[in-house]
Amino acid sequence: MFSSGPFEYHVVGIGNAIVDVLAKTDDAFLERHNLVKGSMNLIDEEMAHTLYGEMGPAREISGGSAANTVAGIAALGGKSAFIGKIADDELGEIFAHDIRSMGVTFTTQPQAGINPTARSFVLVTPDAQRTMNTYLGASQALSAGDVDEILIKSSLITFLEGYLWDPEEAKQAFLAAMDIAKAAGRSVALTLSDAFCVKKYREEFLGLVENRINILFANEVEITTLYETDNFEKALKNVTEKVDLAILTRSEKGSVILSAGNRIDVPAYPTQVVDTTGAGDSYAAGFLYALTHGYALEECGKLAARCASEVISHIGARPEIDLKTLLP
Amino acid sequence: MFSSGPFEYHVVGIGNAIVDVLAKTDDAFLERHNLVKGSMNLIDEEMAHTLYGEMGPAREISGGSAANTVAGIAALGGKSAFIGKIADDELGEIFAHDIRSMGVTFTTQPQAGINPTARSFVLVTPDAQRTMNTYLGASQALSAGDVDEILIKSSLITFLEGYLWDPEEAKQAFLAAMDIAKAAGRSVALTLSDAFCVKKYREEFLGLVENRINILFANEVEITTLYETDNFEKALKNVTEKVDLAILTRSEKGSVILSAGNRIDVPAYPTQVVDTTGAGDSYAAGFLYALTHGYALEECGKLAARCASEVISHIGARPEIDLKTLLP
């Protein structure tokens, strides 16, 4: 799956550097603001101001999809790093502190004179669903120049979030990272992130999956959107053998791992769901930790499911227990 | 107890405007940094930097003692306001959002060109005790000019936190607020906040209690420190009849209410303790809400104990459930 040569990091993640601003809300609030429950919406500064002004009291907890994943890998005892852009402000300081204090190497320099550090207003409804409204701010200033070549070369897997496939500069950063990883004989993993990303960049994502990606993470809605079908099994057939490894998650229905023509079904790990924020990110953390530590694929899926169950049992997308206790 | 004339607010609080930065830690970390478990320490910018750099991943939740109390009163359905100083920065924005979104009137203007908004690094050990390390920053810039006369006059009770009795400017703000309240026939309540405040300003606090305060909140350590005794009953005798109403809290041993020569003992409300941050603030919220809504004193103590039990059952000093469900 990946070069077994000497390495420094199991996984380096590249993504948006976001602080989550989490608040409880009700369905009426979502309706009043035309927000589709469970979705991730990109918002501009004006909408960010309006929404924040109207939502309830919140707590700030560092987030960001790929950032959550590498934080989870570090919490499991793996070595991980992160590349993402913060501004020279207080939320940037919070993001940097939180990820570093979990043991993740984070060397991207905060940048002055750009938009403020990204924040996502995460509205959690009584049914434990999260609806995200993200102001990308500083995150969008990531450019190819921020891609630390040595970091990529010395990581077994470079993990990219589809969310970042948007501003032209960030796309160039993505492609640069992929090229470096490939040239070094390393693997590239991608998560499709959200159906809206897939809808917006379907052709480009198909190209990435067919030509540049070794490991693909997607949930049911994302993979069916990618192959324009409403049939999960059909989408699954489409993706088989396009990548070395495809991991398809289906919430409480568990996940499906596809590799070399084989299919492994892994059940979800039962838990009391409080907030689904970060479920997919934490699943990817468990999976990639296990994969880079020589676990069999089924065991990768089981650890992934266990990690996801931990993060959805509380508010916030970062682990709250010592994840090492989940290791078999 | 207080003028029953027309009023706008049940309680206006004056205190430090703080965002709590809460992280789990262990006893070894406290020992390494010479921190006394359960205490509140004031730290300078350098120590703030060091401590933050070494502590684990955190979450930010608005706090501040008097601010927590007026937030709790609003959550119970009372009308409350807050006076406290924030800087023109992101933590200031977070503080202002959180308190306003709970329904508290907060009109103190953010100030540019002062130290950053106050933050308290709250370290929660596995035994659910909190050890606070507060960088006061912008909070200390509160001055008599910030005391909104109309707000004080139109509030049944002006509630002051002892924590703020430190910089000379803030003391002047305190005294100004007391004078306005007294002239308007309103009541003044004070919480002694922490034993270190009492030790540092014992003579001044004794003077306030004897001459300017109608309602006093203190925990066991604070009241015994004030009267330089290690005997709670002795301290209790000392404070009797110095104020109209003294409310002495004793954690799991419940609380004692002293008024007009009478003593009422109220048991603590049993709960699973997760984090004691804000216990006293939330107790004061329940008590003052009840007092300004015509409850008998014993019922004030019971609602107070119930509110305190809610806030110590989770991380963070602000309520997480709809407090109105706790009303009898």
Written description of the protein model:
2 copies of one chain form a homodimer. By secondary structure, chain A is an alpha/beta fold. Chain A has one domain (9-16, 64-109, 140-326): UDP-N-acetylmuramoyl-L-alanine:D-glutamate ligase (3-Layer(aba) Sandwich), CATH 3.40.1190.20. The first copy, chain A, has 12 helices and 14 strands. In chain A, strands 6-5-1-9-10-11-12-13-14 form a 9-stranded mixed sheet. The model of chain A has no long low-confidence stretch (mean pLDDT 95). The A-B interface holds A 24, 52-53, 55-62, 71, 89-91, 94, 97-99, 101-102, 116, 316, 318, 320 and B 24, 52-53, 55-62, 71, 89-91, 94, 97-99, 101-102, 116, 316, 318, 320.
| Helical content of chain A (DSSP H or I, runs of 4+) | 25-40%
What is the string of helix and strand elements of chain A?
Answer: EEHEHEHEHEEEHEHEHHEHHEEEHH
**Could you state the oligomeric state of the chains shown?**
homodimer
In what order do the strands lie side by side in the largest sheet of chain A? Answer: 6-5-1-9-10-11-12-13-14
**How many structural domains does the protein architecture of chain A include?**
1
Number of helices of chain A: 12
What's the architecture of chain A in CATH terms? 3-Layer(aba) Sandwich
pLDDT averaged residue by residue of chain A? 95
Number of DSSP strands of chain A?
Answer: 14
Topology:
The structure is a homodimer.
Chain A: E1 9-14, E2 18-24, H1 27-32, E3 40-42, H2 45-54, E4 59-62, H3 65-76, E5 80-83, H4 90-101, E6 105-106, E7 118-124, E8 130-135, H5 149-153, E9 155-161, H6 168-183, E10 187-191, H7 195-200, H8 202-211, E11 215-219, H9 220-226, H10 232-239, E12 245-249, E13 255-259, E14 262-266, H11 279-291, H12 297-311
Parallel strand pairs in A: 1-5, 1-9, 2-7, 3-8, 5-6, 9-10, 10-11, 11-12
Antiparallel strand pairs in A: 2-4, 7-8, 12-13, 13-14
